[in-house]
Amino acid sequence: MLDFGRDVLRTFTWQKLLLAQLLAGALDVFAVLLFVYQFTTPPSFSGSRLVIEETMAFSILFAVLIADQAVARGTRPFRSYALAILIASVFSAVAQFQIRGWLGLQTIADQPGFDVTMRHAQVVYAGCDTLTYGVLFILVYLDYRRRERLLRRVRAAELERAHHEQDIVRSQLAALRTDVDAVELLETLKELRGAFEQGRADAEARLGAVIADLRTKLAPVDAEREVRA
Question: Whole-model pTM?
Protein backbone atom coordinates (compact mmCIF):
# COMPACT_ATOMS: atom_id res chain seq x y z
CA MET A 1 0.00 0.00 0.00
CA LEU A 2 2.86 2.37 0.82
CA ASP A 3 4.52 1.55 -2.50
CA PHE A 4 1.26 2.33 -4.28
CA GLY A 5 1.02 5.72 -2.55
CA ARG A 6 4.63 6.56 -3.37
CA ASP A 7 4.07 5.66 -7.02
CA VAL A 8 1.04 7.96 -7.15
CA LEU A 9 2.99 10.84 -5.59
CA ARG A 10 5.86 10.34 -8.04
CA THR A 11 3.47 10.91 -10.94
CA PHE A 12 2.34 14.23 -9.44
CA THR A 13 4.67 16.58 -11.34
CA TRP A 14 4.54 20.32 -11.96
CA GLN A 15 2.73 19.57 -15.21
CA LYS A 16 0.01 17.81 -13.22
CA LEU A 17 -0.15 20.78 -10.84
CA LEU A 18 -0.60 23.10 -13.82
CA LEU A 19 -3.30 20.80 -15.16
CA ALA A 20 -5.13 20.98 -11.82
CA GLN A 21 -5.04 24.77 -11.93
CA LEU A 22 -6.35 24.81 -15.49
CA LEU A 23 -9.15 22.48 -14.43
CA ALA A 24 -9.96 24.71 -11.45
CA GLY A 25 -10.01 27.71 -13.78
CA ALA A 26 -12.45 25.96 -16.11
CA LEU A 27 -14.67 25.08 -13.17
CA ASP A 28 -14.53 28.71 -12.03
CA VAL A 29 -15.71 29.87 -15.45
CA PHE A 30 -18.64 27.47 -15.26
CA ALA A 31 -19.49 28.71 -11.77
CA VAL A 32 -19.41 32.35 -12.86
CA LEU A 33 -21.55 31.71 -15.93
CA LEU A 34 -24.09 29.53 -14.14
CA PHE A 35 -24.47 30.99 -10.65
CA VAL A 36 -22.68 34.19 -9.72
CA TYR A 37 -24.78 36.61 -11.74
CA GLN A 38 -28.06 34.91 -10.85
CA PHE A 39 -27.93 35.65 -7.12
CA THR A 40 -26.87 38.34 -4.67
CA THR A 41 -23.76 36.75 -3.19
CA PRO A 42 -22.13 37.38 0.19
CA PRO A 43 -18.69 39.07 0.23
CA SER A 44 -16.94 35.79 1.01
CA PHE A 45 -18.47 33.88 -1.91
CA SER A 46 -15.40 34.30 -4.15
CA GLY A 47 -13.18 32.73 -1.52
CA SER A 48 -15.68 29.96 -0.96
CA ARG A 49 -15.88 29.32 -4.69
CA LEU A 50 -12.09 29.12 -4.87
CA VAL A 51 -11.96 26.50 -2.09
CA ILE A 52 -14.69 24.42 -3.72
CA GLU A 53 -13.11 24.46 -7.18
CA GLU A 54 -9.56 23.78 -6.00
CA THR A 55 -10.83 20.86 -3.91
CA MET A 56 -12.77 19.51 -6.87
CA ALA A 57 -9.84 19.91 -9.27
CA PHE A 58 -7.29 18.19 -7.04
CA SER A 59 -9.75 15.43 -6.15
CA ILE A 60 -10.38 14.70 -9.84
CA LEU A 61 -6.67 14.83 -10.65
CA PHE A 62 -5.67 12.45 -7.87
CA ALA A 63 -8.53 10.14 -8.84
CA VAL A 64 -7.01 9.90 -12.32
CA LEU A 65 -3.49 9.34 -10.98
CA ILE A 66 -4.66 6.64 -8.57
CA ALA A 67 -6.67 4.92 -11.30
CA ASP A 68 -3.66 5.03 -13.63
CA GLN A 69 -1.54 3.24 -11.04
CA ALA A 70 -4.27 0.68 -10.42
CA VAL A 71 -4.55 -0.03 -14.15
CA ALA A 72 -0.77 -0.33 -14.41
CA ARG A 73 -0.92 -2.99 -11.66
CA GLY A 74 -3.48 -5.06 -13.56
CA THR A 75 -6.86 -3.72 -12.41
CA ARG A 76 -9.59 -3.33 -15.01
CA PRO A 77 -9.70 0.24 -16.38
CA PHE A 78 -13.46 0.78 -16.04
CA ARG A 79 -13.52 -0.43 -12.44
CA SER A 80 -10.43 1.60 -11.53
CA TYR A 81 -11.57 4.94 -12.95
CA ALA A 82 -15.21 4.52 -11.85
CA LEU A 83 -14.30 3.67 -8.26
CA ALA A 84 -11.65 6.39 -8.11
CA ILE A 85 -13.97 9.17 -9.28
CA LEU A 86 -16.75 8.03 -6.92
CA ILE A 87 -14.41 8.15 -3.93
CA ALA A 88 -13.02 11.50 -5.12
CA SER A 89 -16.54 12.93 -5.36
CA VAL A 90 -17.35 11.99 -1.78
CA PHE A 91 -13.99 13.26 -0.55
CA SER A 92 -14.33 16.54 -2.44
CA ALA A 93 -17.84 17.17 -1.11
CA VAL A 94 -16.87 16.60 2.52
CA ALA A 95 -13.44 18.27 2.28
CA GLN A 96 -14.67 21.53 0.75
CA PHE A 97 -17.40 21.79 3.43
CA GLN A 98 -14.92 21.25 6.26
CA ILE A 99 -12.27 23.60 4.83
CA ARG A 100 -14.80 26.37 4.30
CA GLY A 101 -16.05 25.86 7.84
CA TRP A 102 -12.52 26.27 9.21
CA LEU A 103 -11.97 29.42 7.15
CA GLY A 104 -15.41 30.88 7.82
CA LEU A 105 -16.35 30.98 4.13
CA GLN A 106 -19.95 30.61 3.02
CA THR A 107 -21.96 29.97 -0.11
CA ILE A 108 -25.51 30.96 -1.03
CA ALA A 109 -26.79 27.63 0.31
CA ASP A 110 -25.15 27.70 3.78
CA GLN A 111 -25.38 31.29 4.96
CA PRO A 112 -26.23 31.87 8.64
CA GLY A 113 -29.91 31.30 9.32
CA PHE A 114 -30.38 28.72 6.58
CA ASP A 115 -31.81 25.32 7.42
CA VAL A 116 -29.37 22.47 8.07
CA THR A 117 -30.94 20.56 5.21
CA MET A 118 -29.79 23.28 2.82
CA ARG A 119 -26.27 23.07 4.19
CA HIS A 120 -26.25 19.32 3.63
CA ALA A 121 -27.72 19.78 0.15
CA GLN A 122 -24.73 21.97 -0.74
CA VAL A 123 -22.44 19.05 0.12
CA VAL A 124 -24.47 16.79 -2.16
CA TYR A 125 -24.34 19.36 -4.97
CA ALA A 126 -20.56 19.65 -4.64
CA GLY A 127 -20.21 15.86 -4.79
CA CYS A 128 -22.46 15.62 -7.84
CA ASP A 129 -20.52 18.40 -9.59
CA THR A 130 -17.24 16.63 -8.88
CA LEU A 131 -18.68 13.38 -10.25
CA THR A 132 -20.07 15.05 -13.40
CA TYR A 133 -17.01 17.10 -14.27
CA GLY A 134 -14.73 14.27 -13.20
CA VAL A 135 -16.36 11.80 -15.59
CA LEU A 136 -16.09 14.31 -18.44
CA PHE A 137 -12.43 14.96 -17.60
CA ILE A 138 -11.65 11.24 -17.46
CA LEU A 139 -13.29 10.64 -20.84
CA VAL A 140 -11.21 13.42 -22.42
CA TYR A 141 -8.09 12.19 -20.62
CA LEU A 142 -8.54 8.59 -21.77
CA ASP A 143 -9.15 9.71 -25.35
CA TYR A 144 -5.96 11.79 -25.19
CA ARG A 145 -4.02 8.82 -23.82
CA ARG A 146 -5.37 6.58 -26.60
CA ARG A 147 -4.35 9.08 -29.29
CA GLU A 148 -0.94 9.51 -27.67
CA ARG A 149 -0.31 5.75 -27.62
CA LEU A 150 -1.39 5.50 -31.27
CA LEU A 151 0.96 8.32 -32.21
CA ARG A 152 3.85 6.62 -30.39
CA ARG A 153 3.15 3.39 -32.26
CA VAL A 154 3.14 5.22 -35.59
CA ARG A 155 6.42 6.95 -34.76
CA ALA A 156 7.97 3.67 -33.63
CA ALA A 157 6.87 2.00 -36.87
CA GLU A 158 8.32 4.86 -38.93
CA LEU A 159 11.59 4.67 -37.00
CA GLU A 160 11.78 0.91 -37.49
CA ARG A 161 11.10 1.37 -41.20
CA ALA A 162 13.87 3.99 -41.45
CA HIS A 163 16.31 1.63 -39.71
CA HIS A 164 15.26 -1.17 -42.07
CA GLU A 165 15.87 1.06 -45.09
CA GLN A 166 19.28 2.02 -43.74
CA ASP A 167 20.14 -1.66 -43.35
CA ILE A 168 19.11 -2.29 -46.95
CA VAL A 169 21.26 0.58 -48.22
CA ARG A 170 24.23 -0.63 -46.17
CA SER A 171 23.85 -4.14 -47.55
CA GLN A 172 23.64 -2.79 -51.10
CA LEU A 173 26.69 -0.60 -50.59
CA ALA A 174 28.56 -3.59 -49.20
CA ALA A 175 27.55 -5.64 -52.24
CA LEU A 176 28.59 -2.78 -54.51
CA ARG A 177 32.04 -2.67 -52.93
CA THR A 178 32.48 -6.34 -53.75
CA ASP A 179 31.32 -5.76 -57.35
CA VAL A 180 33.49 -2.71 -58.07
CA ASP A 181 37.22 -3.32 -57.78
CA ALA A 182 38.83 0.06 -57.22
CA VAL A 183 42.27 -1.06 -58.37
CA GLU A 184 40.88 -2.57 -61.55
CA LEU A 185 38.82 0.56 -62.21
CA LEU A 186 41.89 2.81 -61.85
CA GLU A 187 43.87 0.61 -64.22
CA THR A 188 41.05 0.74 -66.76
CA LEU A 189 40.86 4.54 -66.51
CA LYS A 190 44.65 4.79 -67.03
CA GLU A 191 44.37 2.63 -70.13
CA LEU A 192 41.50 4.79 -71.42
CA ARG A 193 43.52 7.94 -70.83
CA GLY A 194 46.37 6.50 -72.85
CA ALA A 195 44.01 5.45 -75.61
CA PHE A 196 42.57 8.99 -75.87
CA GLU A 197 46.08 10.50 -75.87
CA GLN A 198 47.08 8.18 -78.71
CA GLY A 199 43.88 8.97 -80.58
CA ARG A 200 42.80 5.35 -80.86
CA ALA A 201 39.48 4.79 -82.60
CA ASP A 202 38.09 2.38 -80.00
CA ALA A 203 38.67 4.77 -77.05
CA GLU A 204 35.12 6.17 -77.15
CA ALA A 205 33.58 2.69 -77.32
CA ARG A 206 35.68 1.43 -74.38
CA LEU A 207 34.74 4.48 -72.28
CA GLY A 208 31.05 3.90 -73.04
CA ALA A 209 31.37 0.27 -71.98
CA VAL A 210 32.99 1.26 -68.65
CA ILE A 211 30.25 3.83 -67.96
CA ALA A 212 27.51 1.33 -68.79
CA ASP A 213 29.07 -1.26 -66.46
CA LEU A 214 29.25 1.25 -63.58
CA ARG A 215 25.64 2.32 -64.13
CA THR A 216 24.52 -1.31 -63.98
CA LYS A 217 26.31 -1.83 -60.68
CA LEU A 218 25.07 1.46 -59.20
CA ALA A 219 21.44 1.02 -60.34
CA PRO A 220 20.19 -0.73 -57.13
CA VAL A 221 21.54 2.06 -54.90
CA ASP A 222 20.06 4.79 -57.12
CA ALA A 223 16.69 3.04 -57.13
CA GLU A 224 16.72 2.78 -53.32
CA ARG A 225 17.50 6.50 -53.02
CA GLU A 226 14.56 7.35 -55.30
CA VAL A 227 12.19 5.20 -53.21
CA ARG A 228 13.33 6.90 -49.98
CA ALA A 229 12.98 10.35 -51.55
Answer: 0.63
